[in-house]
């Protein structure tokens, strides 16, 4: 573990657990929310379901077209991502645990090693046979050049985005580290998450059980509001920057 997690006279460790709500200001819709794509077009769910994806070349071709045409590719970090990045760069020990696959925490400047992506990353592709990783941009260049279902250049295997599809398990290493962070942190700020999808929900509970101060920033009520020390309903882009600033001041 890092120098930040040594005990005795250390600074309080802050965990930031982010969900889809932190990225809506960047123009990325919440696919699973009430207005989400999966609710509007149940067939679209097949595109991100592992068994369909692996067994049906037409599903893969549709998936690649969806990745190519998805405006989320060009999304930029918003005020909330930038506030998190400033906070992470201020010397306070911070770990970001995110349900998002958009890579916007890193794009805002949070170092990769401080971000745990529970559901993987849509900025990378991974081979389902040899596990080789490469960038989504490179794969989409091949799609643009006419390859409808680009295969792994190492082994010819089926490529997929490096996200956790329906029917796939979360990466046990990432999950294990997230659990450790939830148990060890002094403050957990859950931001833009409904806290209804596992494991994010249980991470919030775990942090509270282990004595962390739990702060929830979310427009809608969550199942953990009752155990939270503070619940903030204001828009994330307005509420998060001053909240993090106050922690920085109090922590030093
Ligand atoms: Zn391969």
Blueprint (SSEs and pairs):
Elements: E1 14-18, H1 37-40, H2 44-47, H3 50-55, H4 57-69, H5 79-88, E2 94-98, H6 104-108, E3 115-117, E4 120-127, E5 133-135, H7 136-144, E6 159-163, H8 172-184, E7 187-191, H9 200-209, E8 213-217, E9 230-232, H10 236-251
Parallel strand pairs: 1-2, 1-7, 2-3, 7-8, 8-9
Antiparallel strand pairs: 4-5, 4-6
Bound molecules: zinc ion (ZN).
Helicity level: 25-40%
Helix count equals 10
As a whole number of angstroms, the C-alpha radius of gyration is 19 Å
Separation, N- and C-terminal Cα atoms: 22 Å
Poorly predicted spans: 1-7
- CATH topology description of the largest domain: Rossmann fold
Listed once per kind, the bound small molecules are: zinc ion
CATH architecture of the largest domain: 3-Layer(aba) Sandwich
Strand order of the largest sheet: 3-2-1-7-8-9
Strand content: 15-25%
Shape: elongated
Number of E strands? 9
* Count of the domains: 2
Give the biggest sheet: 6 strands, parallel
CATH superfamily of the largest domain: TPP-binding domain
What report would you give on this structure?
The protein is an alpha/beta fold and 252 residues long. Helix content is 36%, strand content 17%. The chain contains 10 helices and 9 strands. The strands form 2 sheets. The chain has a 6-stranded parallel beta sheet, with helices on both faces. Strand 7, helix 9 and strand 8 form a beta-alpha-beta unit. Helix 5 (79-88) packs parallel to helix 10 and helix 8 runs parallel beside helix 9. The two termini are 22 Å apart. Mean pLDDT is 91; it is low at 1-7. Zinc ion is lined by residues 127, 129-130, 132, 152, 154-155, 157.
């Amino acid at each position: 573990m890092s120098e930040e997690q040594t005990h005795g006279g250390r600074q309080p460790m802050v965990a930031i657990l982010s969900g889809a709500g932190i990225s809506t200001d960047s123009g990325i819709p919440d696919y699973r929310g009430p207005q989400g794509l999966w609710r509007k077009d149940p067939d679209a769910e097949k595109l991100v379901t592992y068994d369909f994806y692996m067994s049906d070349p037409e599903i893969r071709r549709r998936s690649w077209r969806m990745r190519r045409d998805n405006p989320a590719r060009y999304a930029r970090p918003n005020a909330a991502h930038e506030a998190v990045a400033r906070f992470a760069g201020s010397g306070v020990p911070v770990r970001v645990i995110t349900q998002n696959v958009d890579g916007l925490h890193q794009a805002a400047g949070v170092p990769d090693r401080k971000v745990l992506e529970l559901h993987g990353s849509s900025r990378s592709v991974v081979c389902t046979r040899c596990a080789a990783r490469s960038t989504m941009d490179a794969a989409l260049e091949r799609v643009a050049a006419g390859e409808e279902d680009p295969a792994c250049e190492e082994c010819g295997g089926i490529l997929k985005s490096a996200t956790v599809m329906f029917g796939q398990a979360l990466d046990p290493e990432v999950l294990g580290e997230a659990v450790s962070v939830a148990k060890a942190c002094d403050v957990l700020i859950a931001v833009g998450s409904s806290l209804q999808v596992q494991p994010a929900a249980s991470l919030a509970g775990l942090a509270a059980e282990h004595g962390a101060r739990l702060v929830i920033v979310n427009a809608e009520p969550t199942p953990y509001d009752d155990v939270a020390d503070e619940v903030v309903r204001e828009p994330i882009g307005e509420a998060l920057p001053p909240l993090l600033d106050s922690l920085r001041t109090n922590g030093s």
